[in-house]
Amino acid sequence: MIRLSLGTAIELGLLNKKSDIPPTTAYIMIGNKCSNKCAFCSQSTESSTRKDKLSRVIWPEYSKEEILSAFENYKGNNIKRMCIQSMASEDAHETVAEFIEYMKDKINMPISLSAKLEKKEDIEKFFSYGVDKIGIAIDAANKALYETIKGNNYEEKLEFVTNMAKEYEGKISTHIIVGLGETHKDIYDLYTYLKLNNVTISLFAFTPVKGTKMEKINQPHIESYRRVQLMTYMINNGYEKESFTFKNGYIDDIKIDDKIKKDIENGYPFEIRGCKNCNRPYYNERPGSTIYNYSRALNEDEKLLAIKEINLGG
């Protein structure tokens, strides 16, 4: 089973609808059964929600021939990368390999893969197929949450991700979901550790999905998320622990110099970060609702709103 995100299908001309923020990556989901039991995910074996959703995004189904034809006839210039989200199953991994083989010589575009890979041989195999970046999800920012929500061993996952990042420099990524019950200090510790080990990191805001174990949990408060965005942006730019004051595990204050102040005023910390050319429109939010990750440069009103939301005074 091969699915495209709704925005990808629209951008490629497979759906006659409008999208106000075109994707800069083509998002592709492969597999119809996942062996994971992630408590927040619509694709979990323990989820009762519809299986054409991932987070809050709808993913219509297409054949590989339809997808290739859409790429070959694509007249736009927004899409710069393919990102394949694979279910955690052998069948899905085989289909991913077949799909990459079918596409790679016909479409000159870098390919990312997000999958549950746990052996170095599997990492090597997918790189040999032509993937240029592999994402291995960590999601939860501390051991207790990870092992409760994901059901796997936290230390083993961290060791594997960081070892692979050392082995394949610049080619391993992960993401952290904010709002699962962690503290800001948990995120600081994990983020700095991953950064030190050359892992590319994306931030997501927890999004409750009906039919999952965590459907009744609220999204993180926007002030909390904005502060995490600023903290991680500053970590990426070389700022260290003394820039952040934590109170009971949560960011109480951030030392902002002239450079960071200017970046805040330009909205840079609040834009999506992660793999190159990945903008994930409306992955965490609905149009017209609170925007957690901006998929484009902020306009003047959005810049002022983000400064208000972060609530750090002067």
From TrEMBL:
A Pfam match: Radical_SAM
Gene3D superfamilies: Aldolase class I
Positions of the Radical SAM core domain: 20-240
SMART domains for this protein: Elp3
Assigned keywords, A-Z: Iron, Iron-sulfur, Metal-binding, S-adenosyl-L-methionine
Record flagged with keyword Iron-sulfur: yes
Keyword Lyase among record annotations: no
Top-level taxon: Bacteria
Family annotation (PANTHER family): 3-METHYLORNITHINE SYNTHASE (PTHR43726), BIOTIN SYNTHASE (PTHR43726:SF1)
This protein's name: Radical SAM protein
